[in-house]
Design goal:
mainly beta; rod-shaped; 7 strands; 19% strand
Length: 171
Amino acid sequence: NEMIKLQTRTGHQIMMNCSEDLIYIAHGSGKSWIEMTSNGKIDIYSEDSISVNSDNDLNFNAGRNINMSAVENINIISDKNTAIHSIENTSMQAKNFNQFVEEDFNLRVDGESNVYVKGDHNLVVKDNYYISVDSNMETKVDLNSVIQAHYFYQNLGEAEYVVAVYQYMRL
């Protein structure tokens, strides 16, 4: 027997096919099925959703890649901790990227750190703002930059004006 097929009156079926070397289980509507091949590949299809539940751990392991894609959203929710660890690189790319942290936020970079902003860059600190540098610090400001601290605004033109007024007052 090259093929054994069990099929119900409504079309539900289990098929074991030796010539194609696969096992196939399908709903009569064709809206969901499972196919297992001899090379170890398993395909699962559902026109609606697929749910997998466990009272304990759920583990996904792959000898190569784990790929996820969605036409709409990918949501990851954890009642406790969420950890992402990669031995090499981690990349994220988005049209817009927002982060919200209710309590503390710590960023540690053991190598170089670069921030590139093509448009406007705004840093708002509600309480105290500290910068600590263990070696050299270089700040470059272009002619249109504005530095604001406690209601004092300064750009290059205002700085030159303040120096000129100071020199005039000394006369």
